[in-house]
Amino acid sequence: MARKSRFVDVSTIEAIETVVWKTAFYLRLSDEDGENVEQNSLGNQRKICQAYFNKLEDVELVRVFSDNGYTGMNYDRPDFNALYDAVMNGEINCIIVKDVSRFGRHYIMTSEFLQRLFPSMGVRFISVNDDYDSLNPKSDVEGLLLPFKMIVNDSYVKDIAKKIRSSITSKMNAGEYLPSASSILYGYIRNPEMNTLDIDAEAAPVVVRIFEMRADGISFNQIADTLNKEGVPSPGRLRYMRGVTLHPRYATCQWSRSTIRKFVSEPTYLGQRIHGKIKRDKLGAKKTKRDRSEWQIVENSHPAIISQELYDRVQFVNEAELEKQSHYFRRAPVTGYREIFRDKLFCGDCGSRMISIRFNHRISDNKPSEIRYQCNEFLYSGRTRCFNHYTREDVLVMTVKNVINGQIKVAARIQTALTAYKKSKRGNPIADQLQAVRLRRKQLEVKIERLIEDLTEGIINHEEYEYAKRKYADEYDLVLIEEQEIEKRFKSQQESVDRAELWVESLKAYSMVPKLDKAIVDLLIEKIIVFPDNTFHIVLNFKDPYKDFAFLSDYLKTGGRSNGRSKKAI
């Protein structure tokens, strides 16, 4: 038997593309770390990740993601969401964490990422202190231990949460609990040494003035406008000036109607410390407003800024105004779609979020109350930035329903085309090209093998062998390049098929949308931009379904029939 040539082996090895791992560090720190805050500090986590990263080959650090102050049981974290988007967009294919608890402490959610999503996407996951690298087959044993560690982490954070909640409740009942400085009501400053609130000499006179103006019957808007014209720093701006708040948006924060309205109904100014207005029942649950009967009120816990007599006068004015409005405006309860459109609507003029407000018609109009969405920047700035424009919820709902129904119809057609594509005997042109070029490559490999045999048996001389080898080698290189290009096109096509199937599968539960719900809005819509002329730009999560599915054009035109006869084009 003739010897096997090593030429083919070398060419094949040279054609293998080295994988470069586009890497991200993920760091997280929260109050649940308790006494381990120093050990788990963001800086320490980064050093550990960096030291491990420096030992790896074929890696490129793309970005460092970090969340400070977020529990591991909550996966709605700003930088965690940014990391998820980067993975889904293909910008990141390797994640390094100090240990798996930094990634998350919820057993089911963390397992979903590490055992299903990341492996299916080819994403490498490294947990340094757990000695786990999903790329290393020897990590299997440690990988089996990960679920158990997740259960321990899950139980640990729930236990810590119970202890913290119990401790805070005890302090509240004893009047010893103080919130963070950024949560202290305007007019007071935090006194951690005495465990109480002190009067803020700069802001307290403004509080008294607001109450006095309201007691004289001045409207909320007029009070806000007066303070803004006089240049009195608003609560947000005052915190920014003192360095308590660092976000630049607060540098120009203005007084608003809602702020004044909140202040003049706040019993804290009477010296009462109030807890439990908004709270969650358990870890991970949504915070909800509580009835006044559930509040924890501690009397005389700090100095009062206003007197009971002034407070009562203001409440009398507030109630009289509400009574007066009830004769002119309907105040029927409105449920609407606020939760469905939360964080989805943005102003087309300034880019800020749109918030929901209830609009009450006059009784004479014989119309119920309705929900409108208005620019938050306009309201938040005391009507000094952007301008007054809004959209009615019923118009928004109708538009979104039409768009979603259109998507559902398109999905049905693409599903039919996909079915026809998979069953068709016409074949896939790209797959046929790939098969043909692979056949040519194998034929060249056989010819190269035979050259050695012909040289050994004396059929050709050395010069003829060198000439033929160079010729075949050049042709082989060109075929390899062509094969790689076709493989990329074939892979891209298969990814398009996968995306199409995912999209169709996601919409399979819907035929037409009788009523909007949060699930389908989150599934299909990334955001909605509302322009001043009351038009919308709806950005879809799945973008243009036809753009990636050009290879299905014949099947789409024939309505899924594979006989090549076109009756109706889309």
Defining traits:
570 residues, alpha/beta, 3-stranded mixed β-sheet, disordered N terminus, disordered C terminus
Descriptive account of the structure:
Strand 6 and strand 7 (196-199) form a beta hairpin. The strands form 6 sheets. The chain has a 5-stranded mixed sheet with strand order 2-1-3-4-5, sandwiched between helices. A 3-stranded mixed sheet has the order 12-16-17. The protein contains 18 helices and 17 strands. Helix 5 runs antiparallel to helix 6, helix 7 (204-215) crosses helix 11 (308-326) and helix 14 packs across helix 16. It has helices spanning 7-15, 42-53, 78-88, 100-103, 107-121, 140-173, 204-215, 220-229, 235-241, 257-263, 308-326, 338-341, 376-380, 393-423, 429-456, 462-507, 518-524, 553-557; strands at residues 21-29, 59-68, 94-97, 124-127, 132-133, 188-191, 196-199, 273-275, 278-279, 288-289, 296-298, 345-347, 354-359, 370-375, 390-392, 525-530, 536-540. It is α/β, with parallel strands linked by helices. The protein is elongated and about 115 Å long.
Mean pLDDT: 77
Largest sheet report: 5 strands, mixed
Strands in their spatial order, largest beta sheet: 2-1-3-4-5
Number of β-strand runs: 17
Query: What distance separates the N and C termini?
Result: 61 Å
The stretches of 5 or more residues where confidence is low (pLDDT under 50) are: 1-17, 33-38, 560-570
Gyration radius over CA: 33 Å
Give a concise summary.
The chain has 570 residues and is of the alpha/beta class.
SSE layout:
Layout: H1 7-15, E1 21-29, H2 42-53, E2 59-68, H3 78-88, E3 94-97, H4 100-103, H5 107-121, E4 124-127, E5 132-133, H6 140-173, E6 188-191, E7 196-199, H7 204-215, H8 220-229, H9 235-241, H10 257-263, E8 273-275, E9 278-279, E10 288-289, E11 296-298, H11 308-326, H12 338-341, E12 345-347, E13 354-359, E14 370-375, H13 376-380, E15 390-392, H14 393-423, H15 429-456, H16 462-507, H17 518-524, E16 525-530, E17 536-540, H18 553-557
Parallel strand pairs: 1-2, 1-3, 3-4, 12-16
Antiparallel strand pairs: 4-5, 6-7, 8-11, 9-10, 13-14, 14-15, 16-17
Helix pairs in contact: 5-6, 7-11, 8-10, 14-16, 15-16
